[in-house]
């Protein structure tokens, strides 16, 4: 009941937050958006008709003068023309020019042009009034605001439904009263803590038993192989004597050829060279036989056919050469990545892995015991060690995700590479999901990270640039 109350209070806060965000957005629903759409479409149609009969008038000043101009039924405006200055006027069906000495009005020969221009002006004013009423500059902004408002309204409704489902017909006050009747919670160790401690002690006990059995087995094997300590000492003395004799013989031997550091390498290379020589002799005999057979045969193809075959072979060679160059490039990249040596790579990955696993488990596990490139056990700050086989499925998922991120962080350092993941948090419980999501967000702040998910809650935890497919 206490857990349920905590969930209800959290969801109630989510409802209030969603309602607050909704109240802060200007209201623009689908009805208002449709009204703006119709007005914009009407204006575009009328303006298209006006364009069909548009007038163009050019006024050139001979001396300094000030005129009043009116295009269609737009408001009048004043223009000042100096000598030689030009004013170009455009309208749908009517242009009016007023000078202190005269007034000129130009009309289109199309009898409906003025009416269309007047209707276009009325449609423009109506659209401006509608846009001002909704506080937007155009249809695109209205559509964006409508989507934002409806999305926020849907979020608020979803939060309200989640709260109602959690309460299951009960009011918040009734739930608080029922929880208060239980009194204060008894101070006990959580079952998870007890289970973890038990697992740790069991693992330590098993490890000690295996270690003791291993030591006993080695002692028995040594006793079987080397006998008693006195017998072993006698054997060591004999070996020492043989070693002295071998050293004396070695000092009398000639030195190894240049390029060889030890006799074993020299003998191995010599035997390998002998084998290659024998293989080459066999190959030479076979080639000589092939040569004699070919010389006995005249070619059946014409010069033109042979030229085509040569061209095909050359093309195949170019293709194979490009493939070899691509493989060489891949090899160069791989050698660059492995230039530090396998051990340094493992150390680098382990250092990054321990940082990630500490963050993703809330400090519960601080270091990782590695077996080559793979984690073998986890341990906390007090030295308690848990082997891989005893880890829970959630902790294994967390460790696997941390290992991938550590490998990517190591191999992508200093490059513009990126990392793609498919729903890495899907099998984690809420607390692990939050901690893992925070580590992913931190990872994504340093290098590009692309994550696919079908869970909106996961997308909300991760943030970033959300693309809905």
What layout of secondary structure does this protein have?
Blueprint: H1 2-24, H2 30-52, E1 55-60, E2 65-71, E3 77-81, E4 86-91, E5 94-99, E6 102-107, H3 113-134, H4 139-167, H5 172-180, H6 191-226, H7 229-252, H8 263-295, H9 303-337, H10 342-360, E7 367-371, E8 374-379, E9 385-387, H11 393-411, E10 419-422, H12 430-444, E11 449-452, H13 456-462
Parallel strand pairs: 10-11
Antiparallel strand pairs: 1-4, 2-3, 2-5, 5-6, 7-8, 8-9
Helix pairs in contact: 1-4, 1-5, 2-3, 2-4, 10-11, 11-12
Q: CATH superfamily of the domain at 342-462, called what?
A: P-loop containing nucleotide triphosphate hydrolases
Strand order in space, largest sheet: 3-2-5-6
The number of helices is: 13
Broad structural category = alpha+beta
Q: From the 3D structure, determine the CATH topology of the domain at 342-462.
A: Rossmann fold
Number of strands: 11
| CATH level 1 class label of the domain at 342-462 | Alpha Beta
Strand content: 5-15%
Give the overall shape, derived from the CA principal axes. Answer: flat
State the helical fraction: 55-70%
Radius of gyration (Å): 44 Å
Order of helices and strands: HHEEEEEEHHHHHHHHEEEHEHEH
Low-confidence regions: none
Distance between the termini: 39 Å
Mean pLDDT: 82
